[in-house]
Amino acid sequence: MNGKAAEEVPGLYEKFYNHLLAFCEQMGLDKELDLVNIMQQFRLLQTASLPLTEYHRWLQAAVDQIYLKLEGGNSLESRVARYIQENFAMDISLSDVAEIFKVNPSYLSRAFSQKHGQGFNAYLTEVRITRARILLEEGQMRVYEVAEAVGIGNPETFSRIFRRVTGKSPRDYLS
Fold this sequence. Notes:
The protein has helices spanning 3-26, 33-48, 52-70, 76-87, 94-100, 105-116, 120-138, 143-149, 155-166, 170-174.
């Protein structure tokens, strides 16, 4: 992709954002907390000058959330995704969640991956790091407090995971 085309891509995502926002308003989904959070994440992408792959991840997550809301969110995979989004700050594992939903962990892992295009742990990590970005952007918490708030009690582990996902350390992310 040449330089000019690369510069135009964020503008296309801005159009996607505006269309999705209008659609959510038309469907009465604009007050749903998880959708509000996803839509706010787009603004973080813009201010943080992140790579285009992050825009793609955001769009995929936004469309997934809208679809989840429209389908009623009653499938096992949807209920598990919602559980993760509501409980990401706790110490949760695939086995724990499988037990809560009374299914075999292997079945849950396979079904969740098929539905969401990523495994349970990858999804949990994505939810945690997305929330961590928001908390870091707000600037009210120290890195170790953000780590605890998103369910990763060890600050070094948090920094390592954050760097793996974003390509930057939490401190560099703020610069």
